Amino acid sequence: MRQSEQIRVGESLLHCIDNKTTALADRIYSQPTQEYICQDVAGKEHELFFRKTPICVGLSGLLPEKETYYTHDLSGQPFLLTRDKSGIFRAFLNVCRHRGARIAESCGKRSSFSCPYHAWKYGLDGKLIARPEEISFRSSPKENHALTELKAIERNGVLWVMPQPEGTMDLDTHLDTIDTDLQNFKLDNLHHHETRTLTRKMNWKLVMDTFFESYHFCVLHKNSICSIFHENLSTFDTSGDHFRLIFARRTIEEIRSHAKSSWDVLPHIVSIYVLFPNTVLVWQADHIELWQIFPGKNAPEEAVIQLSFYTPEKSVDESSKRHWDNNLDLVLHVVENEDFPVGEGTQKGFHTGAQSHITFGANEPALAHFHRTVTNKLKHE
Ligand code: FES
Ligand SMILES: [Fe+2]
Question: How far apart are the CA of 292 and the centre of ligand 2, in A?
Answer without folding.
Answer: 16
